[in-house]
Amino acid sequence: MEILYVIFFFGLFIFSGLINFLLLRFARTLGIRNKNEVIRWSKTAKPSLGGINFYICFLLSLIAVSFILQGTNLFLNIQILGIVFASTVGFMLGLFDDAFNTKPIIKLLSQFLAAFILISSGLYIHFFDNMMLNYIITFIWIVGIMNSINMLDNMDAVSTLASLGVFLTVLSFIFFNGNWESVDFIIILGTTAALFAFLIFNWFPSKMFMGDTGSQFLGVLLAAYGIKYILNFDFGYESFSQYKNLLSLDLAFILPISDTITVFYKRIAKGKSPFIGGKDHTTHHLSYLGLKDSIVAWIFTAIILISIFLNNYFMLFSTNQSLTLFIIILVFTFTVFISLFIIANKNKNKEI
After folding, report:
1. Are 68 and 5 in contact (CB under 8 A)?
2. Backbone torsions φ then ψ of 46, nearest 5 degrees
């Protein structure tokens, strides 16, 4: 069984790289960004085609399920169907937005539809006794992550790295809990392979962007599996379990959460809409300090690797008495957020 997963991962990695190569070679106008706009960080027009590759690999992963997990009927798993339909809504929303620049209200309604589909399939946050509160906080989480990943896609490799960080965390959680012979594991493994292949084309200097097609699709998957395998994860003990779930979630999503909160605060403080793009993200301000874009990507890579290590150590060895580990993780997440927040409030004169 293990060899099938290895073959599947590397096969999809190679196939995904081939798709990116072909899209880049033959697409001339689809998803081109920066042609008549100044919001993107890159100074040259590049196609936003990554999302198409992600979705193709996602569908191939669903097909692979019937070969790897023989006898599995996807149509009998309501949560998997919810993830498939919701992520398809995210993909179609992003594709339409890349092509026609949809109005914010259309985008928001589509994101609400994706959240409604996931909740209707039984995939929601289990925090409160009041189900309505659970549904409301789930709506906020799903829509928030879809927008957060979209906003973080502002510099080469950053959004790709952030997504990989979450997926690798979820994969390890599933694996160490013995649930790796599952549809979810195959879907995430296939999407992770696609992201690694895309990173080759998205690393500085990038040849293509993921675009809204990619960020909206990934946003749905990240939000869904963040709920299923991190927020609703059973650590095996009761004391402060919800706080530990939240801390684990913060570790996994440290970069999109830090960037979104910082940007929202800065824009609202200026009396501007937080949804209007600009060169005022945490990534941009690291560059304003004189760091090259590739160095910014490496800094984010280091943060992600540390987060993955701490999250897995937390999951494997955390106990009711693990106060030291709890404090270490809390200090790490707080330090990352405060550091990025402080840096983002420097060089404001360079923001556009």
Report:
1. yes
2. -135, 145
In terms of Cα–Cα distance, which of 32, 7, 21 is closest to 197? 21
Question: 147 near 283, Cβ under 8 Å?
Answer: no
CB 266 within 8 A of CB 139: no
Q: 21 and 335 in contact (C-beta within 8 Å)? A: no
Cα 145 to its chain centre, rounded Å, is 7
What are the phi and psi torsion angles at 32 (to 5°)?
-65, 130
Computed over every residue of the chain, the mean pLDDT equals 87
pTM: 0.90
3-state secondary structure (DSSP) of residue 33: strand
From residue 79, alpha-carbon distances to 82, 120, 126, 279 in Å are 5, 9, 15, 38
Encode 186-209: b = buried (16+ Cβ within 10 Å), e = exposed: bbbbbbbbbbbbbbebbbbebebb
Identify any residues that bridge with 209 across adjacent strands, giving them in sequence order: 48
Rounded-to-integer distance, Cα 297 and Cα 280, Å: 17
SS3 call for 72: coil
User: Is residue 46's pLDDT more than 90?
Assistant: no
